[in-house]
Amino acid sequence: MTNPTHRENQYAGFLPPRFKERPDADDVAIKTWTVGTPLSDHSVPEMPAALSLFFDLVGPSAQRAGSNGFAMLWLDRHPHEEPGWRLSIGHVGSSDDIETAVAKPLARLVDAMPMAAFETEDWHMTRPLWRKRSEPVKLVFWGSFADHARAILGHGDGASFYQPLGAGLRSDNVASLLPMLEDLLGDPFLIGGMGFEDAMRLGISLGRAHLIESWIEAGGAEKEPYFRPMRIWHQAWLANALIDPAVASLAMSGKPAMPALDFAADSTPGSRRKSLDDLSSWLTTVFFTDEHPALRNAFVAGVQNAVWLDSDLQQYLQPQQRTEIVQGLMPYCRWFLAMALYNHLGNLAAGNAREDQIEFYATLVDALPELAPLTELASQRDIELHIIRIEAARAASAFDTLVLPFCDLLMPRRQFDAERS
Q: What global pTM score does this model have?
């Protein structure tokens, strides 16, 4: 997580690796089938023997075929569809090659159970579907994907930085493997230190997790199966996002160990919220302290405004809630923008502004012309007066696309001694 040009990493070789063969997510094709007949209800049944055999065979078979990919068995939790088994196979390459890579075990499965094509899409299109309706039951990797998973799950300090292992799960548990999908195919996190947007992203994640638990609790047992995919997939994303802060903390003396999320099968919204509170306390103690006020405020803003800032949650908002959230967001938007402008205009006056910062500032002024009169001689009071003139809705719409990236360019990234190799 330190600057990539910084090579004095005394922990090199001792920490978990980043995925070296990361494909473009658009190049990962995923084909999904319905398998078997519809289920009677939303309880979790035993895995059929034919599916169990398929998962025993598919990894070695695909490995021999030279494929890099994964297979996932999941239960469909869509509230308006019949519950049933779904099988997804991901492959780095064209969709035409998927069945070739797993031809023999797939042929056995077709002979044993009824199957029908469900959809074929790339990673970006499939992931939203899973977050809404997929309860994963079994996951296996092969090729370079499997190599990376083994490097993380088999690391001697794995329990210190990898949430499922820290919570005591076996490495072959589906919940242990789910965060690997984000580590393999998601956007790399905390590259070059911890920046402004990184801090807010962690805050949003914790805030979203609390909201999901509140919805599960309010919906009761009847609605819980339909919220379950969102909870499971978000917990997996959070587990992956915490790898790098946890790795960084290993080189910080006198800091507490990272607490674990609650992965227990009998966990409740209350017990899971308790683990989220413990994690939030750990993050504020180790990373978001008074010594780093910009990062601290970005983190707090993310926690408190997750509904507005997280695109996955905005679909659940009522119109009247949007107005309330925009108003709640405005103090942070104005504070962040004022802080970034004060730094940028000061850099201009001192001749220290970088070209990328100057270009981005021009884009910001195009979108928010109220800032155009400001010059490098502007005082903090001048900056605040011009920001107040910006209409709340326009400022809020520019928050994640312009204000946050501008802050990220202007605020120093916090550097760490330990980083993934």
A: 0.89
